[in-house]
Amino acid sequence: MLFKDRLLRGALAGIISSLFMLAWNLFSYYILHFAKVTWLESLSQLVLGQPAKDILDFLAAFGSLIIWNGFLGGFFVSFIIPERSGSYLGRAVCFGYVIWFFLYSIGTLYKVETFHIASPVTVFSNWIAVMIYGIVLGWITKWWDTHEA
After folding, report:
1. What pLDDT is recorded for position 26?
2. CA distances from 132 to 36, 50, 99, 113, 141 (A)
3. What residues in the chain have per-residue pLDDT under 70?
4. pLDDT at 149
5. How far apart, in whole angstroms, are the C-alpha atoms of residue 130 and residue 97?
6. pLDDT at 3
7. What pTM does this model have?
């Protein structure tokens, strides 16, 4: 196996999962017009303290998303899922919802505009996004654990 370290595998699973989550979020925003705010806009507001003004701001938000979700994936694999345990998908989806709730709580507490003034359809779209994140994270984690050499 190329990646024997569970922390590294978890970080990579978190990064891959975040790309699927972001793809849904952008699809929901640009194609379905379901979400009113993208994750990148929210993260730009959270990280930079202001809406993104140019491509560098969006790159900073995207980098923050990748690094944060890589960290969360490593945390998930190291502390939430014991080695070769069951319920990967259920635990991963619950983990995604807990993280989402935590982020929205912080955004509301500190009055980050894109978090505390969210429409119900944006919240629903984000629920779907974190469910996608959890499913992909759980599936990749299980696949790597069962295909380990």
Report:
1. 94
2. 19, 27, 13, 25, 14
3. 1-3, 83-84, 114-117, 148-149
4. 47
5. 6
6. 67
7. 0.86
What is the per-residue pLDDT for 115? Answer: 66
Give the alpha-carbon dihedral of 124, 125, 130, 132, to 10 degrees: 120
Residue type for 47, please?
V
Tell me the C-alpha distance between 106 and 57, whole Å. Answer: 21
CA distance 15 to 115: 22
Position 100 scores a pLDDT of: 84
Give the closest residue to 91 by CA, choosing from 123, 143, 135, 148.
135
Helix axes 6-26, 120-146, angle to 10 degrees: 150
132 contacts: CB under 8 Å, gap ≥ 6: 17, 20, 21, 24
Given 3-state DSSP classes, what are the helix, strand and coil percentages for the chain, each rounded to the nearest 5? Answer: 75, 0, 25
Residue 82 is inside which H or E element, if any?
Answer: none
Rounded-to-10 torsion of CA 74, 52, 100, 36: -140
Q: Distance of CA 5 to CAs 9, 51, 64, 100, 140, Å?
A: 6, 37, 23, 27, 14
Closest-CA residue to 14 (of 64, 61, 76): 76
